[in-house]
Amino acid sequence: MTKLNSLTIREAASGLREKKFSSEELVTACLEAIGEKDGEINSFVFVDEDGAYETARLVDKKLADGLTLPLLAGIPASIKDLFNTRGVKTTCCSPILRDFVPPYDATSIEMLKEKGMVMLGKTNLDEFACGASTESSAFGVTRNPHDLTRVAGGSSGGSAAAVAADLCIYSLGTDTGGSIRQPASFCGIYGLKPTYGRVSRSGVTSLASSWDTVGPMAKSVDDIAIILQAIAGRDRRDMTTLDVAVPDYANFIGQDVKGLKIGLPKEYFGEGIDPEVSEMVKNAVKKLEGAGAHVEEVSLPMTKYAVAVYYIAMPAELSANLERFDGIRYGKQAENPEDLMDFYCKARGDGFGDEIKRRIMIGTYVLSAGYFDAYYKKAQKVRTKIIEDFNLAFEKVDVLIAPVSPYPAFEVGAFEGNPLALYMADALTIPANAAGVPALACPVGMNKDGLPVGLQVIGPQFAEGLCLKVGAALEQL
Amino acid sequence: MLTDDQVRHIAKLARVKLTEGEISLFSKQLSDVLDYMEILGEVDTEGLLETSQVTGLLNVMESDELRSAQSTREELLDCSELPVDSKQIRVIRVVK
User: B86 to chain A nearest CA, in Å?
Assistant: First the structure.
């Protein structure tokens, strides 16, 4: 029999209803796997054993009483430690928040709890989700379950590794410049960055408010659909969520791709992209072609400017959002300050790691008088051109398919001391955030070194269903 | 290339205390990043509007209904490590 911790949501939910096992047994299987493997992987920063068992037993009782429960009831999940979880420490993997216990749940957490989620614990990330490797976490790097010398990607590296190593059934992550898709791709799982405003950001620590999204990470496309269904929709605590109808995402799974128009953006297959990655993605697309899809090359000429746009606009928004971490409302207070200014500077100097210091300084610089027009305004105008690229492409094709990352998982420490080179790792994921469009990362197999490679299906705004349909077709081929 | 003094000034604006070692490290690293941003100069953005949000939302209005708070006053006060006095957080003296 398959180990319980390796089941999908769909499989676990059926097993619970057929009384093959209990939610408590699912939790035990995951906790045993964590005990066995997570010493090496380091995907969890906190495991809430008591809380998990308590919810699991409650669900088991309801099932025994014959109640009809949502699919997610009793299914063990992990949550990126950027989401506020009531009564459970939420650190953003930063020293400045190491003892912070939120007094409320993020909206997405509240919605999952209403559906009966069993929360196993909180997963590792780059400090304040700033990074592409989970190496800047205050809790140390998360290692890739497929090769422990390599990173799991980032910033949702803990979530991706935990799902890939079957330490949980699914996870919730965030994607500002690729933080769901890139680790999903590095670890060989599925991850969806929804349309901007499709899922509430309320209660999730803000990095770059006009780029941040919340999304699911799981072992199948079907599971991604189930989780998205539970968290999508308008939230009055997040005024950027839209009142757009939430379709029944499960309906898109198993649909025919015949006649579907797929665009391959040539800039995503060119210079700087590992040829084996390009090849594997193109082979997967050929299968869709074989199933009746029409494939053509398209061009998104602004792609090469996305990294520069992002690393101006993102730090600018980040520097404003992180102003609240001042040692007074949150964080450790400074010792023996000379005055209030000294208090702030010490609290923040001690409380933030190097990457956060770099980014808030870049952000402060590009927003400062004399540089605002040259950097920030210019970047926002180029962002407009990136959006035009996508609009033009979607006049010709239904979806775009491209590699998620220029290369598979790299070795721990590969970019040490060279932040700019690490920023380039986001080159293929940033454009979707710039345009606010949805993108689903799907594994396409292992390269010759045994490392997972992933592609992304990018659709127009609010076409998550279409991305899921294509992802599910790929999964079956 | 940013000078060490410029980095000190930016750090002060950002309210971050840096060590001398960090200042020289960051002046190099931040200069590399800012130099790279020059690439945007290649793009003709004449007459284009800036994008600050992507879904076309304008003013979002909400009915003024009473809602229960997500957290109690005590829970909120608990978030800070600073001492609590008369249901307020005691901060360091600002006026000398």
Answer: 16
